[in-house]
Amino acid sequence: MFAPLRRYAQFSGRARRREYWLFILFVALVSALLSAWIASTTGGLPIADAAFEARAQTGLALMAFGLFHLLVFLPAFAVSVRRLHDSGKSGWWLLLNLLPAGALVLIIFYLLDGTPGPNRYGPDPKARPAPRYD
């Protein structure tokens, strides 16, 4: 779950599905908790209508939300590149996010199993032998 944080900006190598999806789950859970904190401080009112104390606490919650996402941006980007490397694809495939249905294609790539055995991006993280074609 925290392996991408230990490999903060390492774009080389390969990442297993488990490493990728556990990190995504961690980010989603922390984001949900921070979002709930933001919602609880406003009491359902727009920030401009809230009392001064509530606005100060909401500001703190918003800063925590922003800081968290700033800190996990690079590890999320790196683990996404390594996940694509596991299936033999270049990190440039992340540019698909710029297309309307590109994120869906990337999600499919992230769900697929990696190539067995070593590939041009490194050894298999599952330590499976390469397939033999005799």
Q: What are the main properties of this structure?
A:
134 residues; 4 helices; mainly alpha
Unreliable stretches (pLDDT < 50, length at least 5) are none
List the helices and strands in order. Answer: HHHH
SS elements, strand count: 0
Largest sheet: none
Describe the structure.
With 134 residues, this protein is an all-alpha fold. The radius of gyration is 19 Å and the shape is elongated. It is built from four helices and no strands.
Chart the SSEs and their pairings.
Blueprint: H1 3-6, H2 17-42, H3 52-86, H4 102-111
Helix pairs in contact: 2-3
Summarize the structure.
By secondary structure, this protein is mainly alpha-helical.
